[in-house]
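Dear colleague,

Following up on yesterday's call, I've attached the two folding results inline so they're easy to grep. Please treat them as preliminary; we haven't cross-checked anything against experimental data yet. The first protein's sequence and structure tokens come first.
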Amino acid sequence: MGWPNAWSAFRVVKEVYADDTTVENHGGMFGIGEANTAYAKYFIGNSYLKPLTNPNETVFVANVTFEPGCRNNWHVHHATSGGGQLLLCVDGEGWYQEEGKEPQSLKAGDIVAIPAGVKHWHGAKANSWFSHLAVECPGENTSNEWFEPVDDEHYPKRKLKGEKHHKKNNINNNMNLQLACILRYNRLCCRRNNTSDRQYRNGLQNSGFNK
């Protein structure tokens, strides 16, 4: 589609989402997807899934969205080598916890690297929708094993000690964050395709993204 049109598209997406304050905006710029009925038995509350790549062609990436209070069961990503999962948080606020450790507060822009063999769970905070990209790391003999739910007694309902309260994200700022991630990735692709840094900077300026 060419550089000028590509950067213009980024600017249009940014402006559209900046004005969108409806409930349909859940899921961030990737969208909420469909109800995650296939894995509903492994969740407390409703979750939504939007696959972004074809696992038969490349690494599988999906946008997972949790309604407030929704979380998945304790589970483990198994692999004889490699494997594991990356969580790239894109919208709202949530929790991640490994067995034997304190819950970790998550917000848009946070990244969690989950090694294979580690028992864990993740989901939304009680008063916030939450979306993250789930990236399945390549490995050998990979599989998932599901365990017990995170019941209300063990699910964190209050702020952690020392945790600052995050106000509801301004949608425009959140879109800037998500677009920044895309542009960084795009820049890496440009370098592989021998696109100069000058072309990249001109694209940024023309898009209005760096204003």
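Below is the second protein, in the same order (sequence, then structure):
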Amino acid sequence: MYFSDYMNLWLYGKEGYYKTFKAIGKSGDFYTSVSASSFFGASIANYFYELLKEGRADKNGWLIEIGAHQGYLICDMIQWLYTCDPSLVQTLKFGIVERQPEVQKEQLAYIKERFGDDVQITHFNDLAEVEAVYAFIVANEIFVESPFAHPSVMFRGSVISAAGGYRHGDFPEDYELWLRLHAQGSRMEKLPEVLLHWRDTPQRLSRQDSRYRREAFDNVRAEYLSQDPRLRKHAGSFAIWGAGRRTRQRCAWLLRRGLNPCAWIDIDPRKIGNRLNGVPVVAPDWLIANRVFVLGYVSNHGARDDIAHWLSEHGYERGENFLMIG
């Protein structure tokens, strides 16, 4: 069984973890940032508001959350947007991607409690159901690798022009564009249909050109990761999972931008207890008592899924409490 199939069954199967709604608390679901404060939602909403003011987001578009639990985050975002500009609650459309009917009912009840009938939420069973010219969706996997094979991409020329078009430099220009579009709140999606048959050869530019070397990917990824509001919020209080030499080499691009971890996480007994540039190397259990934001930098085969699974089992929420980095 593939790991993705196992996780889908474990989360959404007949007795899956997310099959029924679980209240936050000791006997229910785990606490996250949105459970304790509205600041997390407000910070993301403020970023979105800045995009709206600059004309880089559409005030008539969609604001969508994927996996919203009771709806705290999207409600905090809506509240902040209303504080900034009350008219946005009238022009924007709001959606939640949630497939479980019981959870949908809990979300609608909470949203009605917060806003009465002033805010309407549309539920989608899958992101593929969303049909919109513009949607702002929080994503978290774009920092693992380039999400698209360039020959398969189709987009509106006006959107790319508005974003500044392709840029030239010592980096993969397609991946840089995807990262920039993501930072600006653009919606991107892979379609399930096979629409392109592509002849892949050793002479491909991405296999020969220096702009596609590993260091170039790591550098441009670090540039946009360093600007991500989720990480900026935790600057000085985040940990990096992976203290090996190769992992540290890839992390160096982020550290050079002034973002330094408070701890390195590793499972190797030979590394645990050491210090790297004065920062301690600790075992994963350190994260149980010290709830900090985590960047999973280990790229060994299978390790990324194992790390994400461990973090999820210990109350960390992907995209909110940790990000996996390629």
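For the second protein, one point worth flagging: The longest strand covers residues 62-66.

Best wishes,
A.L.
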